[in-house]
Amino acid sequence: MEPQTIPIATSTEFEAPVLEVIQKRRSLRAFAEKPVEAEKIKSLFEAARWAPSSVNEQPWRYLYATRNQPERWNRIFETLNEGNKVWVKHAPLLIVSFAKKDFSRNSRPNASAIYDLGAANAFLSLQATALGLTVHQMGGFDKEKARAVLGIPGTFEMGVIMAIGYPGNPHELPDPLKQRELAPRIRNVQAEFVRNDSF
Ligand SMILES: Cc1cc2nc3c(=O)[nH]c(=O)nc-3n(C[C@H](O)[C@H](O)[C@H](O)COP(=O)(O)O)c2cc1C
User: Fold this and answer.
1) Which atom of ligand 1 is closest in space to residue 140's alpha carbon?
2) pLDDT tens digits, 48-102
3) CATH: 3.30.470.20, 3.40.50.300, 3.40.50.2300, 3.40.109.10. Which one for 27-184?
4) Which residues form ligand 1's pocket by a CB distance below 6 Å?
5) Rounded distance, CA 95 to CA 80, Å?
6) Position 13 pLDDT exceeds 70
């Protein structure tokens, strides 16, 4: 017998009020030519800095390059999957995120390292939205190549690479990407993932 798949209820609507930055944040693929100002780059990392982390370890680490640092920017770009390269080629800012695997105070494994990096990246993304920028996180890159070309030691776990810039013209994207860019955001409804009784 075929295993039964139960359809998941989804919606494009907000079910309750949320912060404007949460409403507006999107992982866009079309970037404007405009570079990201140095003070805005600093604000992105400042937002990450104030994220919560297990015992305040702050395991997040970032390596970034702007398009006017072509050698550094290319080193990061070249680690991306071909499907990502198609649209990332116009991104004015690339950020590589990674996390320290052990606690600094006792060298024990930090099971929360990647969890905490995710929180920091979320803070960074929302700050970016408030600054009029779009952040597109990517897991689609060669982690070992990135580690090698960027000199990231094995004591750090690779996170995502982020492509960042001001939103551009979606009509300049190649066709399948253009459709995705213009499509509404869709999410599972709360009833699919929130319980107030037992599992
Ligand atoms: C860990 C992670 C990895 C992702 N990897 C990619 C990727 O390699 N390429 C891509 O185009 N988008 C990638 N995304 C973006 C997601 O597809 C996107 O967040 C999702 O479709 C929801 O869209 P939204 O962020 O605009 O709400 C990734 C997002 C996360 C959080």
Assistant:
1) 8
2) 999 999 999 999 999 999 999 999 999 999 999 999 999 999 999 999 999 999 9
3) 3.40.109.10
4) 26-27, 84, 137-140, 160, 185
5) 12
6) yes
